[in-house]
Amino acid sequence: MFQDSTITFGQRGGYYFGCESKRCHGSTPKKLRAVLDSNDTAEVYYVTLGAASSFFVSYKTNSGSNQIQSDGLPIHLETFLSERDRYDRNARDIRNIRVTLGPQNSSWYATDGKSWMWQNLPRNLESALHSQKSSAGSWTSPPRIVALGADTNFLLITESNAAFCSLSQYRTLRKMIQFSKTQVNGIAAIKDVVLHSYRYQCFVAESNNGTLISENVPPHSQRDMDTFSEALKMAADRKLYRTPSRASPPLQATLRREWTDQARQSGDDLAREIKLKMKVNVSLSAGSIARLFG
């Protein structure tokens, strides 16, 4: 389950973008900055920013111990994250904890890939989650992506790449998801999606090849977003170069994936055609082309 990149936005302008080779953050809570800037922090696994100065962070220290810190989270979420087992160890798989916070932290979803908990989710999201469970209560297809946005907007993508969404405040993303559903492996190509819970139309989507598509990102975070985007592309390229070719020598290929929509908006000032392109130059073996977005 572990993902090697993190993107999050908070209510008060805070942001954190992190991957193996780059960490960018600004306007983050003081307690969180103390962890991010500490000489004892060897690796940051995951960060979530929420309402006011609330946050969650999981990380590894120089001594090799996995730690979590948080502030201002709902009490039931805190209890889930800090639960201890009978040996007084953290019951959660710290490296794999993922937390999604809705507006004002009034709704939330958390998992470590082994346990799941949520509260006050939008009704349609709650129904979609339960539809992925058997009558015995076990998952038939566990959630892969859960994003909570402004108002009651949300996106759910399951491990089997079924997509459920309500994205009236993120219209470009809604068109992208609709188009992806019509393409072979279209939903599978989406690695992660983050919705800004306090800024309409603001989202960031990451594809499996390291390409980011974003809209209406806060201007003060745009420079770091661009830097982070380049770091992700370089990391993706390195992984492709390290992949051995069994059938043929590496070749240069340009793969283009379009998330597009030809429908026109009517009745408002967004009446226009939207065409978004995801384009990346990669070096890979011929046998890898079909698998890149799989």
Secondary structure layout plus pairing:
Elements: E1 5-9, E2 15-19, E3 23-26, H1 30-36, E4 41-49, E5 55-61, E6 66-71, H2 75-82, E7 98-101, E8 108-111, E9 116-119, H3 123-131, E10 143-148, E11 154-158, E12 163-166, H4 171-181, E13 190-195, E14 203-207, E15 212-215, H5 222-242, E16 251-261, E17 274-284
Order of helices and strands: EEEHEEEHEEEHEEEHEEEHEE
Measured by DSSP, the beta-strand proportion falls in 25-35%
pLDDT < 50 stretches: 245-257, 259-294
Tally of contiguous helical segments? 5
Q: Alpha-carbon distance between the termini? A: 16 Å
Mean pLDDT: 85
Indicate the percent of residues in helices: 10-25%
Please supply descriptive tags for the structure shown above.
disordered C terminus, three-stranded antiparallel β-sheet, globular, 17 strands
Overview of this protein structure:
The chain contains 5 helices and 17 strands. It is 19% helix and 34% strand. Residues 245-257 and 259-294 have low confidence and may be disordered. It has one domain (5-291). By secondary structure, it is α+β, with helices and mostly antiparallel strands. A hairpin with a 4-residue loop joins strand 11 and strand 12.
